[in-house]
Amino acid sequence: MSLFSELERRNVLRVAAAYIAVAWLVIQVAETLFPVFGVGDAVIRGVVILLAIGFLPAVISAWAFELTPEGFIRDREVDRGSPAIRRMTQRLDRLIMVALALALGYFAFDKWVLDPSRDRAREQEIAREAKEAGRAEAVRRSADSGSSEGPPMVAVLPFVSISGGEDSAFFAAGVHDDLLTQLAQLESLRVISRTSVMEYRDTERNIREIGQALGADAILEGGVQTAGDRIRINAQLIDARTDEHLWAETYDRELIPANIFDVQTEIAGAIAAALQGTVTDRDARNLSLIPTRNMAAYRTYHQALNMRDSKHGVRTSPEYRALLREAAELDPNFTRPLAELVGSLSLPNFRQKDPALIEAAERTLAEIEAVAPNSSDFLIAQAYYTYYILQDFDLAHAIASEALEMSPSDVRLVEMKSWIERRQGNFYAMIDSIRQMRSLDPRNPRWTQSLINNLILTHQYDEAQTEIETRGRTYWELRWLPLLRVREHGDLGRYAEEMEAVYKEFRDNAPVLHLWDARIAARDFTGAAALLDQVSDAEIQRRSGLSMQQIMRVFTYWCLEQQDRLADALADGWATVEEHQNSDGYLETGRTILEQAFLSAAGGGSEQAEMLVRRWNREVADDWASRIPYLDIACRMLGMAGIAEAAGECIRTGLAEPSSVMPFLEPFLPYYDSVRDSPEFIELLAELGH
């Protein structure tokens, strides 16, 4: 008899098959159930090892013994032909078949039911881990954005007027401004901007506190004293971390512009040396230049700067331009006021061209070129003219970048560069520029607000949320937090509640628009209407074209299906549009086109609304700054108009490029209710995982 036949006769093969089937089933069930009860992998491995160890004794026992109704009997004592033994063999066969059936059944259940569930759970876990990693990276980047890596950072505190009197105070402010300009030209140093250091005028805070707040490695402080035709300037450089004096000097000179600039040059060189910086040949040439030797021109120019910094909106005023022109006429070689004048003349020409202002800007630009064609002033003036008047954004970016190389710490140039990058549609480069601005101007809340807004536009929600949680102080930062938290809980009702709390905290400075948006998102249309009834039209933020008050009322009544109130609101809206169109100086912008599309959609003019949205899309195709903030509005108009396919494609576009379209919010807004059950929109929701 062969070995195989003997194994079969003694039921060894049956026992082995039954053992393997049952063991496999036990292992699979253990892997499924043990984690549910918090049992770790070590116990599961122990079960596998025990079952593996038990296989050999089971096989040996099957060879040596036979299971009979009387129990286990040695194989040589068993009568294989007896009915009892045949019945036991049949039972063993049935056991094997049941075990195999159970094993196969569990295999199918595991593959088609449990596996997808585990995959989804794993995907969620991976997403959670990725999110946490993203948040961690966001925290790191947020911390790094204010780090001191790179050249030493210097903060120049406002100089003190030692002798008192208006004249001494005037020169103290002038020395401070000019010194910041001088230091901004050095490649080996970074200089905190004037905006951030001005809050420390007459401060009682110690140097270490100021250094920590500004992210500065060293602090320069000084004073100015004038007496007759003499000026005394003292300055000292202090290590912001140790409070150690690194350098100090007093300068006593005749009160003429050349001497003032000479002193500033010496101070700049001393700072670079004390901080182990290197003054390059180019830096030395720039620092040696005397902007003006004319005291009257010097005074007039600084009067203009004081006017500019004292009140918002002065930069394009005739009075400001007159002072700049007067300073340049007093000294035709003084190019700083001319460069500032080109900027003032260029600014109003971005949307509507004024031939007189353009001619004046070109004439002033030619004056600078004739005197100093290789100066940073000429480059700055060119950048203003190219950006605002020519609107050649690529050339403007190249010019601004070249000017920035000559004055690496000039926040004005970095800001201009960021504007240009926005117009180019390069929002990621713009974000880098904003980070640079915040490093150079850390106390200016504008940069954090701008960074958060642009992180959201580029769908970098984790980092945006981290910025808000670590740096948010004002309403304009914190207003985003309730919305971003929707990604975590998916509850738009909770979003509205949290937005209400933020609104109440900052009520005096919080536009009602954002709270209204939250109530609309939560489908609290009655609450949205009550909100509008609680505030006056004057309290509701107005923008160019149709007032936000009218837009909010139209959509609220549209959602409530209050046809009478909707008709009245639509009539007011169209009347406002007609009034603006008939007014002098009316300029149809991308926003005004969308406003007309909105009124058309709300009034049932679907075809007109779609036509206007398509027209808007053509108008702003190459204008990223006008397209990106309003793309979500265009999508909503298509949804209101019932154009499902176009609305879906619009949302997809908004998610694929920088835009205000948010995947966790946009598809769930009531603007899309008329297309929500369409196959096109259902497909979109599936793509988004909803």
Written description of the protein model:
By secondary structure, the chain is an alpha/beta fold. It has four domains: 3-128, no CATH class; 155-290, 3-Layer(aba) Sandwich (Rossmann fold); 313-455, Serine Threonine Protein Phosphatase 5, Tetratricopeptide repeat; 474-687, Serine Threonine Protein Phosphatase 5, Tetratricopeptide repeat (Alpha Horseshoe). The chain is built from 33 helices and eight strands. The chain is extended, with a radius of gyration of 38 Å.
Parts with pLDDT < 50 across at least 5 consecutive residues: 126-148
User: What is the beta-strand fraction?
Assistant: 5-15%
Radius of gyration, CA atoms, in whole angstroms = 38 Å
* CATH fold node name of the largest domain: Serine Threonine Protein Phosphatase 5, Tetratricopeptide repeat
Count of individual domains? 4
- End-to-end span in angstroms? 67 Å
Percent helix among the residues? 55-70%
The assigned CATH architecture of the largest domain is Alpha Horseshoe
Could you say which structural class the secondary elements and strand pairing correspond to?
alpha/beta
Supply the CATH class of the largest domain. Answer: Mainly Alpha
Shape summary: extended
Number of strands: 8
Number of helices: 33
Mean pLDDT: 85
Largest sheet: 6 strands, mixed
